[in-house]
Records
---
Amino acid sequence: MRNHLVGILAGFCGGLVGAYVLGHSSPGGFFLPPALAATTHQQDVINAGRIRLIDAAGKLRAELAMSSDGGPALFFFDSAGRNRLVLGLYSPAESEYPFVVLNDTQQRAAGIFRLFGARETPVVVLKNQGRDRSIYGLNPNSLEPFLVNYSGDGKKGDVFGKY
């Protein structure tokens, strides 16, 4: 019985010493020199102006980059190399509102989902051949919903609400 109690006490003391040593070791590990541990931790971060995802055939399929207007975006390309989807933020000049753009095969916006105005109201824009055809969203002033359609000749027709 006495040996059993001594064994339990020794195990408890060993656990305390181990916890103390582990708690006071360097973040990179107890056996790594601090300089090497710091280098290992920094490798979790990649700094780049552009990151490209290439398929097995060597074609660009996605790119994380700054857009030409200064906003960050993730661009997706089809197998023909056409930009078909963009997820990003507009430029600082446009208040950096988030957006999603679906492009047709001619790389023209066919659908846009974004925030708009000082109250950041959501708006969906449906397009055909680069022209607005229907806009649905919340009015940035009143927060009331609206739907506006445009005919083939560009004439605006309010279905409900004001835009």
---
Amino acid sequence: MALTQKNTCWLMRAGVLFSLVATLLLNAMPALAMTNQDAAALPNFSDFVRSVQSGEENVVRGVYVPNVMAYRVAQQPLDNPGFLSSKEDRVTQFRMAAGYGTVGLVAHNYLAGESFFNLEVGDEVRIVYGDSKVETFVVYEILQYQALQPNSPYSSFRNLDRDETLTVNQMFKRVFVSDGYVTFQTCIEKDGVSTWGRLFVIAIPKAEYEELWEANGL
């Protein structure tokens, strides 16, 4: 579906995104509650794939990044688009993003989301489906934004690396509308404000990453 065909859904999309952000805000907790996965304790990949098997086709059930994370993926209920898992070994797939070509993975910054800060450009991301199918991506871009009104689900966002300010709708388009990418999202804590900003880590298909690598003579 072309992006132009999706423009008529902006209001509905914004409402769901507001709900998601509001959930992050309302459930914010102190940094001392954070738990980070120990890379040495991660299961090997084959064991992880078996552990998340459910027999479901086209349903994401796990995300694995060597030496960084191995998390089960919870699905949002159809009637609760703002749901985020409260389990420390889970990330949640953002259902609405899937309709725009993106595997959106969100988590609280005091639980699984803390591991998102350990992701680096070039890291391999493996998405595991319930039927054991695996798709491989590579981290391509890391974005950090300040929420200009951190306690409001309608906040605009200021890019911390360049002169750019985005509305919520523009932010959604920037990170969740794609041709088959993976986007990790969590909150950034600063100055005692647990929802001060947002971290987005974008991974692209491995084949596409390798093509870009070769095209740039790297």
